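Why does residue order matter? Because the sequence determines the fold. Keep that principle in mind as you read this record.
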Amino acid sequence: MKIKKIKNVIYISGLLIAVGIWSAINIAATIPSLFSLFSSVILLIFSYTAMVFDINERRIPNTLVILMIAGWMFIITIMMFFDISGAIGIFKDSLFGLLIGGGIFLLVYLLSRKGLGGGDVKFMAAAGLYLGIAGTIPAMLYGTVLAALTGAALIILKKIDRKDTMPLVPFLFIGIMIVITF
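Structure:
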């Protein structure tokens, strides 16, 4: 059992490094700012980690969400030393991303009677910090539409029942990758 966990950690670490390098190469061509590149890679690493937890355990640990927020705070603090006016603009945009991402998912969580998990709400709020308002809404739309289409296909194919649940973060991860890459 212990060897299996070690292998999983090695596989996850390798995939995180590959995703980070892939993202850095793709993002560097479209985003000139080093801080934007760094925050995008950090977001993808945290999102991938959340996806693995959501698939394996059907939960997103609070520690991961706190680390996401701390990582964003670290990036914005460093940015303030180099470009305070730009950092303040990003700070405002990020707070709107947090409010939109967390607010919409919180509303769905409250209205859907456990159709959405609390970890999904916290994750999307933290991801909203990195994406800002312009990236949060499309990432949410891509992710939720992809999840709905996948769920509908699995129901039609009788692989799952209407009452079964699916992890949402893998689909949000794909939505975040689409927004960051394109």
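The chain is about 85% helix and 0% strand.
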